[in-house]
Amino acid sequence: MINKSRWKILGLLAVFLLMVWYTISREERYIPLFDFHFQDEKMTCPFREVEKKAAQLIPNYTREPPLFLHLKDYFWVKTPSLYELPYGTKGTEDILLRLLAITTYSLPENFQSLKCRRCAVVGNGYRLRNSSIGEVINKYDIVIRLNNAPVHGYERDVGTKTTMRLFYPESAHFNPQTDNNPNTLLVLVAFKPMDFMWMETILHDKKRIRKGFWKQPPLIWDANPKQVRILNPYFMEVAAAKVLKLPVKHLWKLKEKFLGFEKEDSPTDIIVRSWLTEEVFWFNVCGDF
């Protein structure tokens, strides 16, 4: 019964996400599968095109909150977070302090200096295989990969450029070295306190945690701490309260709907993209390589 309920929830969520993505990126922003037309660099940059569409969809939309958590925000906290993960950091401040002490929060200088942030989002869809669009993907200013979307061995189809990879422990089954670039930002999207604990044990090389996950995360994960970022839970809160339009007092219930599912186009991902870029192209369908 529980599994059936979860699949119903997943089905409803998938339909909703499709509608959200269509709203944000329709007009000439969607690239039909196997009909990829890269617009040359001479075209005018659609300045904050995605932000404008996000503002139409999300009430009181703003880019002001920082994308990643800052260490300074957790010393002598005057206004503690109201929510637990994944919508806030209530109850996880201590472990978060330790984690933020060895990671960082800034965006690379070359990223901030981009005149136009045209973004390609790449998932691990099966039908990308044999598509031969790797060179097209590499031409975008920003390439965001989701979860364990592979690169090594599929370069011709998915490209080699990875600006940022969003993941959570259960979806971290990619090689941080061969499936990313040396300067790729590894962005942890935390759903529960165990996610912070897993990351801490990995980066500090402590005894690994095996329980508390719906799927066993990697026990060996060779990542540079300076490339790791922690996504601000604010974006999860906005996804729940403003995109899914759930009453704030019911946010804790939504957490159960998120946990246990690998989402290639979640509301959170949509909001992150709108914060980062002027224009977004989507290279992904459901399924695995």
Automatic annotation (TrEMBL):
The entry's keywords: Glycoprotein, Glycosyltransferase, Golgi apparatus, Membrane, Signal, Signal-anchor, Transferase, Transmembrane, Transmembrane helix
GO cellular component: Golgi membrane
Any GO MF annotation of the entry: beta-D-galactosyl-(1->3)-N-acetyl-beta-D-galactosaminide alpha-2,3- sialyltransferase
Listed InterPro entries: Glyco_trans_29, Glycosyltransferase_29, GT29-like_sf
GO biological process, one term: glycolipid biosynthetic process
Family of the protein in this entry: Belongs to the glycosyltransferase 29 family.
Protein's name according to its UniProt entry: CMP-N-acetylneuraminate-beta-galactosamide- alpha-2,3-sialyltransferase 4 isoform X9
UniProt source species: Notechis scutatus (mainland tiger snake)
Classification lineage: Eukaryota, Metazoa, Chordata, Craniata, Vertebrata
Gene giving rise to this polypeptide: ST3GAL4
